[in-house]
Amino acid sequence: MFEKNHLLCVYNYLKINMIYPDHESAGFSPNAHYYYMLYLIDSSGPVEREIISSYYFDQYKIALNCGRRYIGPFKDLEELQGFAIKIREKINALKVFVLSAQNLSQYLDDSVDLSDLVNKIVATGDSFGNEEAADQKNSFLRKIFK
Amino acid sequence: MQISNDPTNDNEIIFPGDNWFFYWKTSSALWRDKIAGYESSKIVVPINWAFHTDNGEDFDFHHDKPETDLKKLEDIAREASKKLVFFVPISPAPFLVGGGLPHILSRIPSISREGIQTVVPEANGRINKIYSFYDQRVFVAYRKFMRALGKFFSQNEMTSNLWAIECGFIQDEQYVSFFEDYSKAQHETFERFLAIKKQANDNNQNLEITHILSSLSEEELLQNEFVTDVKQLYIETIKEFFPINYEGLVKIAFLGSATDDLFFKMLDAERQNKYSKDILFCLTMNIIPSSILLPSNLKKGIIEKQFKDLVSSSYLSIILGDSMYDMSDETSFLPLTNFYLYHKNLMDYSKRYFWEEIGLYKYLKENFNWAYKINDSYTQAATLDETYLANKIYFYNGLDIYSTEYYHILKMFMNGGKIVVENSSLDKNILKRFEGFFIENSITMEMVNTTTRISVGSLGEGRLVFFDGTLIKSLDEGKKINFWSEIISTFDLVNVKINSEQGVDYMWKTRTPMKNELKFEEVRRVYFYNPTSYKKRVKLNWAKNFALLKINEEINSKVQHEPNQSVIDFLPMGSVSIDFGVFY
């Protein structure tokens, strides 16, 4: 399984049919495709909506307003990944795994059980580490074993 | 005989509230002992299509495998004074390998709304891949199987009730059916559906399909129509081949089978809290919650208690009809419902969240936890009985009101019912008919212009309130809550104010008073559950219409009484229920 301080992000590239006026002012258009996070979850469950909303507002200066779970829209994958990294830093996660719905489907198709699936994600998925958090953890451990 | 790759663990299926029997998992030589071991007099037997056929063409009901002999199973149950209730899936079933399709038909993987392959994480960590029911070959083969099974039932004069079941899960307080599928099979079938529609429209010289699909909501409407039609094909098939046994369609939510659960399991996240809420949500949506896919460690404690208190006792009898479960005890507690929120079509998400947008859903959640039902059927709850209408409020979105609903609202109003109608999207002709009704009956409409335009008509106990929801939508959350607080307070509902720490779930039930309780109009019981790993506290403010009767089963909890309130302290996994006599 994943480690306790790992964050998992699953995204998809979806068509947005109608948009709020705020979104238009931030450069989003109706009937266009954008990136959305479908899941952003760690061992304590989905990351709190308040944290996400606040960071999304910081990034685009518009309210997060796209249904209950989805997070977005993001203009490109880099922006989505950058957002995932910011959340990882905020919640002090060691690593965030960012994978597309298509990749996840492929992993699911190729896996027999959950540990098999996790191994595939860890081995081949895109991940972004938090060196600072890792250092903190290491220095904490060093203090214990000094 | 055991099938090793079955998604359920045989040791974990017998559980209060579920009482399912998987005939394909137990040698028929052991059926008698196993059936006799069930506490309940009614046993649910799901039909496993794949177990009866290898090639989708030939079916085995007692020739090759003795475990396929459902007549024998029915006879054994009768001898053991048990009744069987057969469940026939009309959707992929998460408790069966591949969703229940025979191996030869498991070709096109089902795809979820999010674009992810639909899978169910099993208790043992295995991944059960679900296959599409939209594949044309699947439907053709399904009909063949149902015809053969129906023939077997009629030739053997089997009399057990049979229900069509739609399988799904709860995610974000929403029922998601395994019938929901965005695979290529679904797309292809939808394309054919659109082509037929287009042809019909061309013949009628109506709009072009391309024009019809110009907006999201219209596309969604067509999708909804398509999904409903295909689902109906499966239902009609069962009706056709089981004319005597068929009882109806029920929705079942399998705890632990949501897409969320896949991630929760991978991340080893806490889930008991989620399942506790899912069970209560099911009760507000007329959905049967099932624990058969949960691992045994999660079934114990609070979840088990909730099933025992809320599901197995009276709820199943309501959903499956009195004939399914014994209702000999007239004084059984039934779920208390003060509010009915109507939706014409729950699959249209913009309508689904209408009550959230105007803040009503949040207000009810915070103040009348689970004492509301969200219905898409006007017949289930909207009875015209005066006693039934008391202490209840019916909410309608103007968009959903057509002639049938218009007449029903007026009938309820004249019988003392309390109805609230959002009128900004109300059809103008319907609005005129309402106005005409008030003029003809000399009912003066009281107009209030506060947060929004409100008009109120009264007739005896009956109240009909119209409000403009567009203005409410634009308010901030606090003002929305205040608006509803003011509106609801005018109805003088009888209830106890509960201040609960986040994480504690509670639900009210009600029953008629017994002989020694005749001074009360009704008896209510509130069930509290703390599914979290933390200590929690709940305060109940005493209400003048409530008299404390008794405190039941204090498990990891302690109730203390203070002036004007009771305080309940919960340890992790604590629960308690309290009975009140209520007079109006």
Characterise this structure.
The complex is a heterodimer of chains A (146) and B (584). Chain A has 6 helices and 6 strands. By secondary structure, chain A is an alpha+beta fold. Chain A has one domain. In chain A, strands 1, 2, 3, 4, 5 and 6 form a 6-stranded mixed β-sheet that branches. Chain A starts with 5 loop residues before the first strand and ends with a helix. In chain B, strand 3 and strand 4 form a beta hairpin. In chain B, strands 9, 17, 18, 19, 20, 21 and 22 form a 7-stranded antiparallel β-sheet that branches. Chain B has 3 domains: 262 residues, TIM Barrel; 151 residues, Rossmann fold, CATH 3.40.50; 86 residues, Immunoglobulin-like, CATH 2.60.40. With 584 residues, chain B is of the alpha/beta class. Helices cover 33% and strands 24% of the residues of chain B. Chains A and B meet through strand 1, strand 2, strand 3, helix 4 and helix 5 of A and helix 7 of B.
Q: How many helices of chain A? A: 6
Give the strand content of chain B: 15-25%
Structural class of chain B: alpha/beta
Low-confidence stretches of chain B: 1-5, 10-17, 206-216, 323-330, 378-382
Question: What is the β-strand count of chain A?
Answer: 6
Q: What's the gist of this structure?
A:
The complex is a heterodimer of chains A (146) and B (584). With 146 residues, chain A is α+β, with helices and mostly antiparallel strands. Helices cover 46% and strands 26% of the residues of chain A.
Topology:
The complex is a heterodimer of chains A (146) and B (584).
Chain A: E1 6-16, H1 21-25, E2 32-42, E3 45-46, H2 49-60, E4 71-74, H3 77-90, E5 95-100, H4 101-110, H5 114-124, E6 126-129, H6 131-145
Parallel strand pairs in A: 1-5
Antiparallel strand pairs in A: 1-2, 2-3, 2-4, 5-6
Chain B: H1 31-36, E1 42-46, H2 70-79, E2 83-89, E3 119-121, E4 127-129, H3 136-155, E5 161-170, E6 175-177, H4 184-203, H5 209-212, H6 216-241, E7 246-254, H7 259-267, H8 272-284, E8 288-290, H9 296-299, H10 302-320, E9 334-335, E10 339-342, H11 349-352, H12 354-357, H13 360-367, E11 372-375, H14 386-389, E12 393-397, H15 403-414, E13 418-422, H16 428-440, E14 445-449, E15 453-459, E16 462-467, H17 469-473, H18 477-489, E17 497-500, E18 505-511, E19 522-529, E20 536-541, E21 546-562, E22 565-582
Parallel strand pairs in B: 1-2, 2-5, 5-7, 7-8, 10-11, 10-12, 12-13, 13-16
Antiparallel strand pairs in B: 3-4, 5-6, 9-18, 14-15, 15-16, 17-20, 18-19, 19-22, 20-22, 21-22
Helix pairs in contact in B: 3-6, 8-10
